[in-house]
Amino acid sequence: MQQLSEKAEEVLESLWILTVEGDQVGCLLTDLQLEADAEQLKDLLQRAYVEIRDNRILLRPEGEAEARMAVRRHRLAERLTMDILGIEGEEGNEQACIFEHLLRQGVDTKLCTLLNHPSTCPHGNPIPPGDCCTEARRSGSPGIVPLTELKAGESGGIAYLAASDDKKMQKLMSMGVLPGSDILLMQKFPSYIFKVGHSQFAVDESLARQIHIRR
Amino acid sequence: MTDMSDSVSPLPKVILVGHPNVGKSVLFNALTGAYATVSNYPGTSVEVSSGNCVIGEQRYEILDTPGMYSMMPITEEERVGRQILLHEDPHVVVHVIDARNIERMLPMTLQLVEAGLPIVLVVNILDEAERLGMKLDLEQLQQRLGVPVVGAVMKRKIGLEELFAAIKDYRVCPHKVFVYRNDLEQDITAVVRLLNGEYRLSKRALGMLLIQGDEDIKQLVEQQEDSDQHNELVEVLREIRFRRRADLHLQIGMERRHIGKQMLDGVVTQTQAAQETFGEKLSGWMMNPYTGVPLLLLVVYLGLFQFVGVFGAGTLVDFLEGFLFEEYINPPVIAFAQNYLTAEWLFELIVGEYGVWTLGVRYAVALVLPIVGSFFLVFSVLEDSGYLPRLAMMLDRIFKKIGLSGRAVIPMVLGFGCDTMATLVTRTLETTRERVISTLLLALAIPCSAQLGVILGLLSSAPPALAVWTIFLLGAFLLVGVLADRLLPGEKPVFYMEIPPLRRPQLYNVAVKTLTRMKSYFFEIFPLFILASVILWAGKMTNTLDVVIAGLSPVVRAIGLPTEATTAFVFGFFRRDFGAAGLYDLQMAGVLSVTQLTVAAVTLTLFVPCVAQFLVMFKERGFRIAVAIFVFVTAFAFGSGWLLNRMLVATGLLQ
């Protein structure tokens, strides 16, 4: 079967977010700024991924898997642009929208593995797990995650620091945060509090994200 | 301390260095008997304190530096400390570390030894380390480091004698060289080869700092080396820094920790740690938003409202002003003046409306000092207990919205005591942007305790007025903060802060600290009070005051206030609380309605900082920024007053 068009994927994503993650029953065509005979809908209707009832567009069970994977690709793309490429804000969102459509035919799996199967996007929304994530969980590989992914009370070893500039790196080192040390995350909100050695430190999210932990 | 001006040769210097919050200032006090501010939060020693100390027959000058995390400074205060190491020629440098965190702090000892400085290592806070189940073999550490090591509990003066001995008998001997990984050693050699000038620090240490891109050292080297040599050096450094671009700092950090760990192998033994103490539980409650916010409100209610407001501004002021001055001190002074000061100008100068005695001394001693004093007491208790870093951590997210990090909570809280002192403390913030924003907010929306005391007293008779005042000020604080964050260029701040263990405040420490703050407040402020009353007196005698008041009164009338209130605003510039106290007199005379009182209180709180604060702003932030803040704050204050007056009149809210 031919690939869905980019526009059609975006419709699926919006539907997923509103109806599966949110609690709406379908959504108004006007909310998605679509006409009933829009080009991107034809393909979706033909594959029976969605149906239209009185101006409302509904996600059918047949379309759920595709929609979930589209959301997954979008949020993985956000991780890539914002965390790895360091493109932030509006620009980051735009770039992510372009990248997500390139993440097909196993590229998403490779990216997901490279990013170590992240569970949330930079905005804190869940990334639907793919087969690779389930497999990684099953095999129990320790995995390396940013400190922000740990639960309060969880501890681990510092694997590496991904500080983007020298100043941040110096700050982390001045707190004794160095690869090889053990770290205990004590609290996540309103700031991150962790313990290294016998000292406690409070840092904001931008610093906590730089510390990568082997669980 | 005796006067040392007769000595010709300068005294040998002993410099104290170390991380924040390891007990440097306690040691300084133990050595000198003087009092430098000691506290339980990182970054109190803003300026370098110095004092003298006699050991054996010899007198030494002791310098206490701001806390620093490594030889390579991040903040301005760290630079101050490093500058001293770069330029002074010390007899001994005492490196103070916290025994509990010896593994984290030892790398800095290595750097200091590497720099060829005459180091004595003081391993402090041994008692708390023992409680955590740590045992330290300092004898062995001394052998490995090659410099004297002294174990200490400085709070109880344990280890002081040994430190005296180590300072007295210090013999400079060639230091041990700690060898790094081969590739790093090659780079260091390549740089050191090109350093031929005369330097205080070892070339090896300078080489390391140059490789790490230290700007101060770059400049220093540029001055010392001839230009051909320097050009070659720049080229070599560029090449090294590019080759190591990925992990330069990290690698050096790892290397130092590796050496430190080897050195501590067998020195530190960890046994069973003690159970979670009550302090740790309380610490958890303070940092959890669900329990932390109620605790914060409790602290504000008990500390600020009950102690400073009710006790300080109420009971104490009533006693000093209403009882002591009115009944016992003023009558004889006035009688004396009536008998002996027959010239009208002299009578006015001393006991007249704006007299040095009646206005200056009475306000300073009876009205302001008790309020500020009780605030400083509360602040000292909070500071010593270690509550402030926990508050900083709780408020970081909100402060980010106004362009500041949680670190700025400390000067902001201090501002409720004295904005002038707080403006000085903004120096501990990392970026210029944060310093400018916090200076602006302190000047605009944080009332100092003296002003707060008087205003609370004024408005407490009308609770809705108090609510309007609170909401309006909070709104102004957030609005201007958010706007400043949007408009000022520069990077967003990053928040990181050490959370020291909670400690029970020591009575002696709190008392001395409060008294020191009161003393410096009094010495700084008292002359200004006198000066202000002299200026006002001169203004009255020459009628200039009337001219100024006449000039300002249209503005005051425009915001709906009676002409008499103008005097309060003119006063307000000399002392913030002067202005508020002026309102107090007006209210007593019954010339202000509740609406007018509220408008006046809001405008006056927002209105320009006092002379002292303006001078500090000028000194710390420079002419341009100080004037810009001054103009903005004045315009904003009267603009808000006008708006608030319109709103209150239109809605009839406080009728």
List keywords for this structure.
heterodimer, A: 215 residues, Arc Repressor Mutant, subunit A, SH3 type barrels, 3-stranded antiparallel beta sheet, 8 helices, B: alpha/beta, Rossmann fold, Helix Hairpins, 3 domains, 6-stranded mixed beta sheet, 28 helices, 7% strand, elongated, disordered N terminus
What report would you give on this structure?
Chain A: It is found in: Cytoplasm. Chain A: Pfam families: Fe_dep_repr_C, FeoA. Chain A: InterPro entries: DtxR_MntR_Metal-Reg, Fe-transptr_FeoA-like, Fe_dep_repressor, Fe_dep_repressor_sf, FeoA_core_dom, Iron_dep_repressor, Transcriptional_repressor_C, WH-like_DNA-bd_sf. Chain A: This is Metal-dependent transcriptional regulator. The complex is a heterodimer of chains A (about 220) and B (about 650). With about 220 residues, chain A is of the alpha+beta class. Chain A has three domains: about 5-65, Arc Repressor Mutant, subunit A, CATH 1.10.10; about 70-140, Orthogonal Bundle (Arc Repressor Mutant, subunit A), CATH 1.10.10; about 145-215, SH3 type barrels (Roll). Helices cover about 40% and strands about 20% of the residues of chain A. Chain A contains eight helices and nine strands. Chain A has helices at about 5-20, 40-45, 60-85, 90-100, 105-115, 130-140, 165-175, 205-210; strands at about 25-30, 50-55, 55-60, 145, 155-160, 180-185, 190-195, 200-205, 210-215. Chain A has a six-stranded antiparallel β-sheet. In chain A, strands 1-3-2 form a three-stranded antiparallel β-sheet. In chain A, helix 1 crosses helix 2 (about 40-45) and helix 1 packs across helix 3 (about 60-85). Chain A is elongated. The termini of chain A are far apart. Chain B is elongated, with a radius of gyration of 28 Å. In chain B, strand 4, helix 3 (about 100-115) and strand 5 (about 120-125) form a beta-alpha-beta unit. Chain B has helices at about 25-30, 75-85, 100-115, 125-130, 140-145, 160-170, 180-190, 205-210, 215-225, 225-245, 250-265, 280-285, 290-340, 345-350, 355-385, 385-400, 410-415, 420-425, 430-445, 450-460, 465-485, 505-540, 545-560, 565-575, 575-590, 595-605, 610-620, 625-650; strands at about 15-20, 50-55, 60-65, 90-100, 120-125, 135, 150, 270, 495-500. Chain B has about 650 residues and is an alpha/beta fold. Chain B has three domains: about 15-170, Rossmann fold, CATH 3.40.50.300; about 180-270, Helix Hairpins (Orthogonal Bundle), CATH 1.10.287.1770; about 290-490 and about 510-650, no CATH class. Chain B has a six-stranded mixed β-sheet with strand order 2-3-1-4-5-7, with helices on both faces. In chain B, strands 6-8 form a two-stranded antiparallel ribbon. In chain B, helix 19 (about 430-445) packs antiparallel against helix 21 (about 465-485) and helix 19 packs across helix 28 (about 625-650). Helices cover about 65% and strands about 5% of the residues of chain B. Mean pLDDT of chain B is about 85; it is low at about 1-10. Chains A and B meet through helix 7 and strand 8 of A and helix 11, helix 16 and strand 9 of B. Strand 8 of chain A pairs antiparallel with strand 9 (about 495-500) of chain B.
